[in-house]
Structure to design on (189 residues):
């Protein structure tokens, strides 16, 4: 039975590592669809947790390693997954500006403007804070994250297109981080 436990742990670690590798390729190759592979370890982990299946060997170090992998996946994979969701939600392909923001047409003037610059960096920090706050047992911190993000972006949200992308992107990113954080906590519980 101990051998099976160790094999399950190694398999879980390989699946998480595969999700991380797919995420890195998704980011480097600008192919957000590759990050969908990150859904496999998180989905399987949450499904096993729902049914109460715990296949980890006894030393808690194994669970900590898996939880850190899941947390890392929660922070990293959020960017390409959010881009993928935004692409699905947009009527037109999302075009990127030179500073990493998205290009939109201003409603009043019709000119093109780059908004939501630094979104990838903000997203990584946001997801790290969400994973950390849930892992430490303080999910109320997420309210402060939402407030800070909303206030910080308020001046850029003067067009319907920017507001729509901001809301969709934020929700996709936060849902992903929350799911990963819950799985990380359940892994070490």
């Amino acid at each position: 039975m101990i051998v099976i436990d160790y094999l399950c742990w190694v398999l879980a670690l390989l699946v998480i590592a595969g999700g991380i590798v797919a995420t890195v390729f998704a980011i480097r190759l600008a192919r957000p669809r590759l990050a969908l592979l990150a859904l496999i370890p998180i989905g399987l982990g949450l499904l096993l947790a729902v049914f109460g299946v715990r296949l980890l060997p006894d030393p808690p170090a194994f669970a900590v390693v898996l939880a850190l992998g899941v947390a890392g996946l929660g922070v990293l994979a959020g960017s390409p997954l959010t881009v993928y969701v935004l692409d699905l939600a947009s009527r037109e392909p999302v075009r990127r500006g030179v500073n990493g923001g998205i290009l939109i047409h201003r409603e009043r003037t019709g000119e093109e403007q780059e908004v939501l610059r630094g979104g990838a960096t903000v997203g990584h920090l946001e997801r790290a804070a969400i994973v950390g706050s849930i892992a430490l047992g303080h999910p109320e911190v997420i309210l402060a994250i939402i407030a800070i993000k909303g206030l910080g972006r308020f001046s850029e949200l003067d067009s319907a297109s920017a507001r729509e992308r901001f809301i969709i992107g934020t929700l996709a990113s936060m849902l992903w981080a929350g799911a990963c954080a819950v799985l990380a906590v359940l892994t070490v519980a």
Summary: The chain has seven helices and two strands.
